[in-house]
Structures are given as C-alpha cells and as structure tokens.
C-alpha cells in the first residue's frame, strides 16, 4: 500500500493534472450552498409547525412565540447540519479523486467510471443524485430532532406543556372551587398526555412537510424535488471550481 501511495505521488507530480477532485474550498462551498438554499424550505416547514402548535394551545400564541418553542430544534439542526451534510455528500457518495491506491481505474477519470468521483464534472453529471442526497440528509436530520427521544424534542415539549399549563392552572382553580379535590391529579395527567400526543402528531409530519415543500416527488434520479433543485444556479456554482 505504501508503494501504491508513493507511485501515486510520483504520478501526480509528473503527469499534468487536468481534472481535479472537489477538495477543500470546493467541498466546503458546495456543502454550504445546499445548507444555505435549504434555510428557506426549512423555515417554511417550521412556520407551518409553529402555526399548528399555536392552534392546539388554548391561548393561541402568536407566530413569534410558537416559533420560539421550536428554537431548540433549529439550534440543534444548525449546530450539526454542516458535518452531516458534508459526510452525506462527499465521503458517502462522491469520493474525491477516482483513484484507488493512487491509480485511476480503467476508464477514469470520467463521470461514469466505476468509482463515483468527486470532481465538479461528476457532481454535475450526477446532479439528480446530489440533489437527492442533500434533501434526504436534511429531512432525516430534521425528522430525527422532531422525534421524541432527542434532547431538542424534550425541550420543545416542555415549552409547549408550560404554555398549555397556564390555562390548565386556571381551570384547576375553577375546578377546586366547584368540585371534589381528590380527582385533580388524574385530570392534570390526562391533559398533559393529550398535549404530548397532539405535539407528537404534528411533529411526526416534519419530514413529509419538507417533501411537500420541495415539490412532492421523491424521485432523486431524474427531475424530482423541483422546488429544492436549484439546478441551474448550483451547476454553475459547482463548475466554478477547477
Ligand atoms: C442556491 O445556491 C446557489 C449556489 O450558492 C446560488 O447561486 C443560488 O442563488 C441559491 N438559490 C437560492 C434560492 O437560495
Ligand atoms: C438518507 O439519509 C440517512 C441519514 O444520512 C441515511 O442513513 C439513508 O441511507 C439515506 N437514504 C438514502 C435512500 O440515501
């Protein structure tokens, strides 16, 4: 293996390189381009979720307030999105140089060689796949955070229960004045469980809301995800790398 690498280095030094792999700035730039373009569909989905949460709460808080309940999910998403996206696109599918042990497999580098190269040309050639990877990663990450079990979800749930509680406490005071005291705890537990369930019902649709927002069709290979494609601008951007 060590010899392979030495030969690879010698080759790289002696043979003029005409096709460069997407590395460094190219990887960072393309990863960030998808993350940036996805901010608007994500915001659209989260606003939709915020409205549904507002509808389920007795006080019907305004959009800003219910957006704040969701803040832990967005903060967590923003913290981890870069690493997740870079990994999903690059090592996982587009493999930098096509070379194996420093040698191009037969027919490489061209976009259809047996290893999918991470050259800008290859990213453009397989744009349908690239677009799908970016979508799938975004949906997977958001849906994971919007599922009970994540820390972010726990915080959102607590905020919603607290918001619901203001009304509950008022109802309990009325209840205490008018009814037998002994049944209050089960009344409270039932209401909290209902609120948890309603929140889960809203949140489990985050992934499919993103799919709808992106145009509805999941066919990654051809022309699906029409509203999260950005094909022309993205291809131009990708080809701006050498
Ligand atoms: C998507 O990203 C590309 C490359 O950065 C950019 O040119 C384009 O304006 C972006 N489109 C949207 C809608 O954000
Ligand atoms: C979607 O993304 C997840 C998380 O990165 C990954 O495990 C899964 O294999 C991807 N699905 C497809 C069809 O690429």
From TrEMBL:
Species of the source: Phanerochaete sordida
UniProt name for this protein: Uncharacterized protein
Entry keyword annotation includes Signal: yes
Upper lineage: Eukaryota, Fungi, Dikarya, Basidiomycota, Agaricomycotina
Signal peptide: 1-21
UniProt keywords, alphabetically: Signal
